[in-house]
Amino acid sequence: MDQFEDGTHPQQQPPQFHQHSNDDIAALMMQLAIAEACHVPHIYY
């Protein structure tokens, strides 16, 4: 029980981060810029 109180969790997986390509990020930023310029809300799914 003490090992868990020390923060050691042998079965716990590290958080996985979603990787996006540079093209995906550029497309999203362009859509956000267009939405901001047109004063409309942008909804990202």
UniProtKB/TrEMBL annotation:
Compositional bias per record (Low complexity), positions renumbered to this chain: 9-19
Superkingdom of the source species: Eukaryota
Region listing for Disordered, in residue ranges: 1-22
Protein name: Uncharacterized protein
Species this chain originates from: Trifolium medium
